[in-house]
Amino acid sequence: MSDEKTFSDLGLSPERLAAIEALGWSTPTPIQKQAIPAGMTGTDVVGIAQTGTGKTGAFMIPALERVNVGEGLQVLVLCPTRELAQQVSDDTVALSKGTNIRSEAIFGGVSYNPQIKALEQGFEVIVATPGRFIDHMNSRRVDLSKVSYLVLDEADRMLDMGFRPQIEEVFRGMPKKRQTMLFSATMPNGVHDLALRMTNEALWIEATPPGTTAEGIDERFYSVKPDKKNDLLMSLIHEPGWDQVLIFTRTKAGADVLEGLLKREGIKVDAMHSNKQMKYRTRALERFATGDVRVLVATDVAQRGLDVDGITHVVNYDVPLDPEDYVHRIGRTGRAGATGTAITFVTAGDLGAIKSLEHRLGRAVEKIHLPEFDYAGAPPPEGRSIGGRAKKSSRGGGGMGSKSAADLSPEELAKLLNPGS
After folding, report:
1. How confident is the model at residue 208 (pLDDT cuts 50, 70, 90)?
2. Burial 64-81 (b: 16+ CB within 10 A, else e)
3. How far apart, in Å, are the Cα atoms of 314 and each of 11, 221, 225, 242, 420?
4. What does the buried/exposed string (b/e) look like for 365-377 if buried means 16 or more CB atoms within 10 Å of the residue's CB?
5. How many angstroms separate the CA atoms of 78 and 22, rounded?
6. In the CATH scheme, what is the code of domain 217-375?
7. H/E segment holding residue 325
8. For the domain 7-206, what is the CATH superfamily, name and number?
9. Rounded mean pLDDT, 370-390
């Protein structure tokens, strides 16, 4: 007989089990197996977990099990981005099915009036971004006196975005007797300090070590000249199986340019970044999730909190500057046990970032050289491709003998890329 733990083994209510079954969740994920029982007993939890590991269920299931309907705000979840707040709120609604628990998402970029009216109605659960929540709190529209369950989701991201003062302000307004859960993909000193200050005798859970990518993701690095990125993208995106594609660009302008290019190619596409109005971003996400558009081009606003099933390909049009951002970006595919493909375009100027990324990952990623796009021509025979990984090839080495681009000095690389200079 299998000793695999099920949700039924966690002592959940019939209503919660029915809601979980309706969501199609079969067995608890590793972090859920540890965090849910702790949460049910009132224990504080600090979890190190990547997106896509089931952490929303890990903190929300025990929170909802302890809510008393009609007794005011009892659960507060703080998230770094609007998109993540909306996703967590949607999951909360689904997990509350069959009960009278009321929840609301509060975030910036939209009108205050609907939120004010909603807050007047009273909710047991609020999922919010720090800035907008502080506005409502300072206007005395939110009563924190009965909050017994506080969650900080993506704590590292919130600190990166400068939300520490707002988090501290909320912290000061909270009842001292409460349960706290803090989840973070990484545990830098700032987050570690915050976790120690905000929790009491917490259970620390490391579901996935930092730099770990989900199983089922086929990762590939494509060598490409900067001016050939668009051509390479068009070559790939027309291949079979590219059904739902998420493309990350470094800049908002780059996302808009790429959206226009894809539209001219007859591809259904939307762009999503912080310069877009919230209603447009929400519509773009909905259209992508339902398959009305095949491609979503986004900046890092979507790397966390975008929980869309069925994304077949993630493309890093620009190499992310932080290795952890790479993990979060490609984690949009291969979710819930599915398979997916993550592709990164690598130019000659990205070699340093790629070397750092592979060092952080602790492994090499498959390198692909296509002569018509390769920034340095095809790799030499028995030579090494980007990052120094051994790769055999019968093609020539681009005029530098047995050296690959990774071995070249800056002067040699410049000569190779600009032979007429």
Report:
1. low
2. bbebeeeeebbbbbbbbb
3. 38, 12, 20, 10, 36
4. bebbbeeebbbbb
5. 26
6. 3.40.50.300
7. helix 323-330
8. P-loop containing nucleotide triphosphate hydrolases (3.40.50.300)
9. 55
Question: Which CA distances in Å does 283 have to 49, 154, 290?
Answer: 28, 24, 11
| Averaged confidence pLDDT in the chain | 84
Q: Which two tokens stand for residue 366?
A: 């498959």
Q: Taking 60 as the threshold, does the pLDDT of residue 392 lie above it?
A: no
Please give the full DSSP string across 5-30, using - where no structure is assigned: --GGGGT--HHHHHHHHHHT--S--H
CB 127 within 8 A of CB 88: yes
Cβ–Cβ < 8 Å for 33, 55 = no
* Average pLDDT of the segment spanning 359-368: 87
Query: Are 7-206 and 217-375 the same fold in CATH?
Result: yes
Predicted TM-score (pTM) of this structure: 0.62
Would you state the pLDDT for residue 83?
A: 85
DSSP secondary structure letter of residue 124 = S
Please report the beta strands in 68-146, taking only residues with DSSP state E, as ranges in sequence order: 75-78, 103-106, 125-128
pLDDT in tens, 182-195: 998 878 788 898 99
Residue 212: the pLDDT is 54
Nearest to 55 by CA among 137, 156, 147, 148: 156
pLDDT band at 405 (very low <50, low <70, confident <90, very high): very low
3-state helix, strand, coil in the chain (%, to 5): 40, 15, 45
Answer yes or no: are the C-beta atoms of 152 and 181 closer than 8 Å.
yes
Helix (H) or strand (E) holding 119: helix 112-121
Domain ranges of the chain: 7-206, 217-375
Tokens matching residue 33: 């197996």
Q: Which residues pair with 178 in a beta bridge?
A: none
Tally the residues of the chain: 421
Angle at 76 (CA atoms; ends 188, 281), nearest 5 degrees: 80
Joined tokens for residue 342:
């993550």
- Give the tokens for residue 205: 């859970």
From CA 109, how far away is CA 144, in angstroms rounded? Answer: 23
Which amino acid, 362?
Answer: G
3-class secondary structure, 179 = strand
Spatial distance between the Cα atoms of 290 and 312, rounded to a whole number of angstroms: 14
Q: Is the dihedral of CA 221, 222, 227, 233 positive or negative?
A: negative
